[in-house]
Amino acid sequence: MSLKLARIASYALLLGNTWLVNAAVASAASNPVTTQLPNFAAIHAEKLSLTLDSAINDYNQELNQILEKPPSWDNTIQPLEQNNTNVRKTWNLLRHLNAVDNSAELQTAYDTALPKMINFRTDLMHNAEIYQRYLAIKNGEEFSSLTAQQQNTIEQMLREFNLSGAELDTVQKLRYREIVQQLGKLSMELNNNLKNAISNWQYHVNLEQKDMLDGVPDIIKSSAEQKAKKQKRKGWIISLDLNTVNGILTYAQSRELRKIVYIAYATLASEQDGKNPEWDNTSKISEVLRLRQELAQLLGYKNFAAYSLADKSEPSYEVVLEFLESLAKSLRIDAKRDLDRLQAFAMSADGIDELQPWDISYYSDWLKNGLYGIPNQQLQTYLPAKQVLEGLFSLVAILYNIHIEEVKDAKVWDTTVKLYSITDQDNNPRGYFYLDLYSRSNKSPGSWTEIYTPRLLNRDNTLLQPVTFVNTNIMPVKNELLSHKDVLQLFYAFGEMLQHNLTLNNYPSISGPTAWQKENLIFCGSFMQNWGWQPKVLQDISENINTAKDLPLDIVEKLIGARKFNAGLHLANEVERSILDLKLHADITQSPFEIQQQVRKKYHAGPALEEDRPLNRTEHLFVTGFAGGYYQTIMLDVAAADAYAAFASAGYFSSRVGQDFMQYFFEQGGMQSPHQLFKEFRGRKPDPRYFFAGLGLDD
């Protein structure tokens, strides 16, 4: 059974903050369990800022007390793990709300807090006394008596110290601090420029141009009409939010409208838009790459690509690049075949003798529907969000013996957000997650999960359970219907959440966002996404809103067949992005645009726009933490497909295999890299044949 509000022992104010309550929850486990759930209805940006300042101050005071005691696990590492969590949960809350419920006040609070958090981490990493304490415990008699998790916590923190410049001299440490502060500021400015460029672009379709909107989904047209009404204009205002862009490029019959939207999106935050030079990210990108190079060399690495790989599973830049280039070469025939077929179709359908970038999604969707006969609007009638979630919860109950239940009357940041509790087969609580499915104007694009509080065994032997945020950007439609693409997005995010919540690692240095943990999140997300193609699962998550029937088997088979459509083309372009990422971080003698053009010329599959500036809008490389590691999305997809094959060979719904998977990947997560865990799970390295077979590229 899951936790219900009736089982919560009491609510109490925490540290005098009116916006945070502490729910003391009964548990069958040996440790009392506490879970701190924010009251989002009472949160204000100013209070978050003050609470963060207070938490950092408390942390620094205890740090001074730690240094007065002899080094040991109890005197040094345990209090640091706990107090670090107290600071980060407030920062995590501020960062989260800025992404999902953005306002001018939150943006200001975030911009003010970011340099404080950078200094907070740098102060710890450069504290010579603390670093020496970790070394003393690692090399002392106590180490052998510590648990495996405690030993791993120390070893991973020592890696962090080394990668953060703990052994630099005083002058070098000062420069390191300056660099990370500048990089943090640039990251913030890049993101803000992109947000401003998106929010300030619009295209007015007047009543006489109504035909331009033929084929565009009703939800996009309705939103565009509402925007026009707010401006007291007749017609429709087209914007550049990602759902609108994708909807128009995929469904708009007007080639002119597709071209307008594509070019506007392709030139965002660059010199090519010709309107807002103050939001041009070009020079900032060059500065980011220059600073990353200097940082890497300061720490003894040839370039930032090598530095990035230092805490990942792969052995070297050369090995990864060789893998990607070999993959790109093998995909050329598949990608060309996909393009030739698409070109022939566009010619026969509309007389298009040369495909342009704004044609690819449109004719791909048209041809795919012609081949497999699954109009998206018809498919959506089988996928109401409520049924999809029920089917997903049933799947994880079968595989992992966990139970998920909604917590009623939760205090959330938007009326569409829901809170869920997780319990295991022994009725032990395994934490909570907030689910925020739908896109909003004040919500960042994309799909991601993040930790509010990690799992933590406190010094008083109480266990703080994980609380996570699961965010997707599904376009809200009537009856809350999802597309299959939405389902895959949800399954991926759900896999990441399970890794956060089901961990049995008791210390944030291994249960929180470590390098290995980030790799494992990608792996677990990709693994769960595979279930979005499994025939029985597709039927279990479906229920027609008119007939209450499951998705017919013939549609399921067509849907699975459609997965292989243009697979070579899509994968070739993912490989190109991965190669571009590596090369950008290995060579700063050329401009980023020159490197982009060279990589595009050699590896790009399909038509390209000369003015396209993907780097200027690429958050993965310049705002989030994927720099030098984008290739992992492919390599971990390969491992995830092989892990999924283990279930397939056991009949898919094997609780035995599910428990093994849970033990290795969810529960041990940050203790080892996913590649090491995979070897223990499968007894060998990943076999890429399963990945390519799933995409129809095994011939």
Helix content: 55-70%
* Spans of at least 5 consecutive residues with low confidence: 1-30
Oligomer: single chain
Distance between termini?
Answer: 47 Å
Radius of gyration: 25 Å
The major sheet is characterized as: 5 strands, mixed
Task: Please write out the topology.
Layout: E1 8-14, E2 17-25, E3 33-38, H1 45-66, H2 73-100, H3 104-125, H4 128-139, H5 148-163, H6 170-199, E4 203-205, H7 218-230, E5 236-238, H8 242-251, H9 255-266, H10 282-298, H11 304-309, H12 317-350, H13 360-372, H14 376-380, H15 385-400, E6 403-407, E7 418-423, E8 429-438, E9 448-453, E10 456-457, E11 463-464, E12 467-474, H16 484-502, H17 508-511, H18 515-530, H19 535-540, H20 553-562, H21 567-584, H22 592-603, H23 619-622, H24 632-649, H25 655-667, H26 674-682, H27 689-694
Parallel strand pairs: 3-11, 8-12
Antiparallel strand pairs: 1-2, 2-3, 4-5, 6-7, 7-8, 9-12, 10-11
Helix pairs in contact: 1-2, 1-3, 2-3, 3-6, 4-5, 6-10, 8-13, 12-21, 13-20, 16-18, 16-25, 18-24, 21-22, 24-26, 25-26
Fill in the keyword field for this structure.
five-stranded mixed sheet, 699 residues, disordered N terminus, single chain, globular, alpha+beta, 12 strands
Summarize the structure.
The protein is α+β, with helices and mostly antiparallel strands and 699 residues long. It has helices at 45-66, 73-100, 104-125, 128-139, 148-163, 170-199, 218-230, 242-251, 255-266, 282-298, 304-309, 317-350, 360-372, 376-380, 385-400, 484-502, 508-511, 515-530, 535-540, 553-562, 567-584, 592-603, 619-622, 632-649, 655-667, 674-682, 689-694; strands spanning 8-14, 17-25, 33-38, 203-205, 236-238, 403-407, 418-423, 429-438, 448-453, 456-457, 463-464, 467-474.
